[in-house]
């Protein structure tokens, strides 16, 4: 049996060849051998709580009261955040909130608009 690479999306070792494509039976990802890095980079998409795709410069609204780490204050539901910037990591939104200053948020706690 030949030694095929793991799936670049989910890491599955059960990939197989289908013509000139490699296929992952676990996540249904298809790719051309040698194009793994391009596939992973192209699929990095940040979505809000409703599934809308977020981009740099969007305005979002907080959908849940959030405790501010290192402070006794709370970021209230409905707080509007303008001009977000998407970053890598667990907290994937970098922004500046009036009255709080610079902050990082998780995209699962905001909605677009």
Could you characterize the architecture of this molecule?
This is Alkylphosphonate utilization protein. InterPro entries: YjdM, YjdM_C, YjdM_N. Residues 4-31 form the Protein YjdM N-terminal domain. Residues 46-112 form the Protein YjdM C-terminal domain. This protein has one helix at residues 36-42, and strands at residues 16-18, 21-23, 30-32, 60-62, 66-67, 74-75, 80-81, 85-86, 93-97, 101-105, 110-112. The N and C termini lie far apart (52 Å). A hairpin with a 6-residue loop joins strand 5 (66-67) and strand 6 (74-75). The chain has a three-stranded antiparallel beta sheet, with no helix packed on it. Strands 7-4-11 form a three-stranded antiparallel beta sheet, with no helix packed on it. It has a three-stranded antiparallel beta sheet with strand order 8-9-10, with no helix packed on it. The chain is elongated, with a radius of gyration of 19 Å. The protein is mainly beta and 113 residues long.
Strand content: 25-35%
**How many extended strands?**
11
Shape descriptor: elongated
Q: What structural category arises from helix and sheet content?
A: mainly beta
Q: Can you tell me the number of structural domains?
A: 2
Q: Unreliable runs, pLDDT <50, ≥5 residues?
A: none
Helix share, percent: under 10%
Helix tally equals 1
Q: Could you spell the SSE succession in H and E letters?
A: EEEHEEEEEEEE
Mean pLDDT across residues: 86
In what order do the strands lie side by side in the largest sheet? 1-2-3
Largest sheet properties: 3 strands, antiparallel
Radius of gyration: 19 Å
Oligomer: single chain
Distance from N terminus to C terminus (CA atoms, Å) equals 52 Å
